[in-house]
Amino acid sequence: MSNLTQEIDIGMVRVSSFKQGLAGDSPDEQKEAIQAKRTKEGRIDIPIEWVEIIESASGVKQPYQRVLAICKQSQIKISRVYAKVIDRMTRGGAKPYIFFKEQLEKNNVQLVDVAGVISSHTVNTLEHITNKKYAWSVYNPSYKEELLEAEAGKDEVRKILTRMIGAEIRYIKYGYWVGPSPLGYKNKKIDTAEHGERTILEPDIEKEAVWFETMFSLVAQGTPYLEVVKQVNAMGFKTRPRKIYDELIKTKVIGVHSGEILTVKSLKEYIKRPIYAGVNNHSWLEGKPVKGRFKSIISIDLFNRANKGKITIVEDGENVRIYNGKVPSYLQKKDKFNSYFPYKDQVLCPKCKKPFYASTSKGRNGHYPAYHHGSRTGTHPYLKVSRDTFHETIRKFVQEVKFTDDFLMYLHKFILEEWETRRKTSLDKNITLGQRLTSIEQEQKMYAEKIPLLSSAVAIKVMESKIEELEQAKVEVMAEKAKRQKEGMDIQKIIHDSWYFFEHLEDLLLEGTNTRTNSTLFGLLFDEKPTYEDLLFRTAKLSCVFKLSEAHKNTLGQKSMNSDPTRIRTEDQELKRLLLYR
Predict the structure, then answer these.
(1) How much is the mean pLDDT over the chain?
(2) Residues contacting 493, CB < 8 A, separation 6+
C-alpha cells in the first residue's frame, strides 16, 4: 500500500474451494459485485485492496482473521471492509460474526455487504424524550437480521456437508472409492446400474503396482527391511510429486515437492495398509472394513504373511474383519492336513475307493495310531492299518519307483543344453568383463603417465579425479566378474543336485522335513489316487514319467506296472495279514 494514500477500502473475496472458484461465485464475480456497490456509494475513486481468502470457514480459524490483522497493522486509514454477502466473511454462525464486526468497530472500520443486510444506522429509543443516550437505548435495527443471515450461512454449510459427506460414506460402504488414489493405484470411473457413475481403484500395473507386489512378497519371505528398501528403490520407487501452496493465498503455488524414496519407516507403514489387499478400513466405516469393488494389488493371504500376525485380515464370505494381534480361534481357518497322518488323503480305501480316516486310539498298553475306514454297520467291514505299517508300505513302494528311460534321456538332453547355453553366456560375459577391465587399467596407466608432465595443480587434480573414477569402475567390474564365476559354480551345483534326486527319488519324496510337501510330491507320482492294495501289489497307475524297477516287477511276475488290478487280490493272505479287521 502506498503511504501517499489517505484512505483505502478492503475488498474481502473468498472461495471455499478451487471448484467453487471455477464453477460459480468466483473471486472475479465477487469483485464485480463489490465494485458495483462502491460505485453506487460514490467511492469508486477510493483505492481498494483485495484480500483473497480460502481457509475453511466452519473451523476455528475463520477467514476474516487475516482481514482483522491487516486493519490493525495498516499505517493507512481503512474506512470500509466490503464483502458480497455475510457468508463470504464467515460460515461459523452468529458468534464469530459478532466478534468480527465488533473488532472492526473498535478500529473505526465499517462493515458493508453488497446484499444490503448490514446497516450502520442506529436508533435511540429515548430520542423523542431526551438527547441522552444509554448503552441499552441505542441499537441497530438490522442486527437481528445480520445474525440470522450469519446463522443461515452456517446452516447452509451443514446441509452441504451432510449431503456430500453422507453420500461419500454411503458409497464407501458399498465398496467404491472416495478421494485421491493411494500410491500403487489410480482412480477409474465406472458406470453402475444401481449407483450411476462411481469411482473405484485400479492397480497401476504400468508403474507403481509392481513396487508394492515386490514389497509385500519380499517381506513375506523374511527379507530384512533394509534389503527390501534397497531393492524397491532400485526399481524406481518414489512418491508422487505434490504442489506446495502459500499458507495465506491457497491458490498460489510456491513450489513442487519432487517425491520421496522408500525408507524403512515408510515401508512398515505401507505394509500395514489393508487397501493393498483390496480392503478399505476408512475411519468413516467405524471399524467395519469392506471389500473394495476392484482388483487388489496383492492377495489377502500375502498381506497376512507379510504382517506376520501383527495385522490379520479374516474373510467371512463377503465380509471381512481386521484384527490387530492374535485372531480368535473360532475365526481361524482350520487346516485339515494332519502332519502325523500325512497320507490319509493320498491313499484310498481298497473297499470303497474313498480316502482313509486317521486317529490314535488308546489301549491298555499305550496309544495306537492308525489309518482306518468303514464300520461294523457300514457299506463294508471296518479295516485298520497301523500308522507304521502304512508308512512302511509307502516307503517300500517309493523305493521301487524310478523315472522312465525316455524321461531321463529328455532330462539329460534338456539340462545339458541349458547348462551349455548358460556356460557360453557366462564365458562371453566374462570375456567382455575382462576386456573392460583391461581397458580401464590401460586408461588409468595413461592418466598416471601424464601427471608428472603437468605443472597446473588444477589439471593434476582433474587427472587424479579421473583415476579415482576409473578405480571405482574397476572395482565394480571385478565384483560383476566374481558374481558371474559364482553363477557358473551354482549351475554345476544345481546339475549335481538334480542328478542326485533323479537317482534317489525316495529322498525327494520321503526325506523332506515338511510332511505336507512330502505328501504332495507323493501324490504327483500317480495318474489317479492309488488304493492301499495298489501300493501293496504295485498296481497303482503311475504318471507317464515314472516306472517300477524291473527287478521288482520280475519278482511279482507282472508284465506291466500300470496294469489294472482285478480287485480279487483283496482275498490274498498277505493283504489279510496287513489289514486288521474288527
Answers:
(1) 78
(2) none
